[in-house]
């Protein structure tokens, strides 16, 4: 057993030594009787990088939305989809992975809102379609797909997106979408001029509290 552990540690040390971030001259794995200890800086860990950048993006989001959107893309680049998908998960890690997945989705939502404020509706359509397919019961993505399509001059597709949301909720859960969905549908049908205001997200557009 000891020999096997030593072999794995040797291979891990070699792998880390080949990693560009480990070429700082510091030994990351040290012998610490009766075993080993791994010492790394938080800046070398993807999860911490993600959270630092996400926090910075939130601070920038109100006054500098374009910069915040760039920072969020960088932050999300440090995570897999879903987070820790390539790591065997025990009970504790399952909880951490679920929390990290929620944090990641929250940052995706913020980045989409920022892109909407910047008028990037057409560019968002394909991404939002993909998110709706991956998270069919997360109404937030449906709302923004409807709005992105409508602002791209594709009102008929926006109404089809609303119908898909309603069918999905009824078939999967036996319930209707939140009232916001129907109010957003009416805004699209009415061709309300406010629909074109990039500062407004679905909740603000129909006068509902976020």
TrEMBL record:
The keyword Transcription applies. The keyword Thylakoid does not apply. SMART domains: BTAD. Pfam families: BTAD. Keywords: Transcription, Transcription regulation. Residues 45-189 form the Bacterial transcriptional activator domain. It comes from Micromonospora cathayae. SUPFAM superfamilies: TPR-like. This is AfsR/SARP family transcriptional regulator. PANTHER family: TRANSCRIPTIONAL REGULATOR REDD (PTHR35807:SF1), TRANSCRIPTIONAL REGULATOR REDD-RELATED (PTHR35807).
